[in-house]
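Because discrete structure vocabularies remain unfamiliar, we first show an illustrative case, written as a sequence plus integers encoding its fold.
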Amino acid sequence: MGYLEKNDYVLVSGFAQTPKGTPLNEMYKHIGVQLLVDRKSNRIIKSDFSVISSLTKEVLQDLVQGYCIDEPFGNLENKIKKHMSIPSLGAVLQAIKSAIDRYKDTFKVL
């Protein structure tokens, strides 16, 4: 079944400026995050990140998949910080938070 056929899935995005002097900034200037969220469970079921390295993208996807948006963002932030140390980590976290906030604002998650 495709995502569009599943009425309980929504796609949200968030963006953040990348740190100057990093390869990511040279290529993109901003990082983008897309989250596919199951509205019944408020869990992230799939994600995508505009990063240069496929390994970085894979690790980020693994870390955010299954995260429940009802949990405090600090839980996800700490999990990511425990497993990653990259120059653009602050921008990545800000972009994820922006996408989650967009989800909460748009779909009124309490």
Residues 89-107 form the longest helix (19 residues). The chain is about 40% helix and 25% strand. The chain has a mean pLDDT of 89. Strands lie at 9-17, 30-38, 43-49.
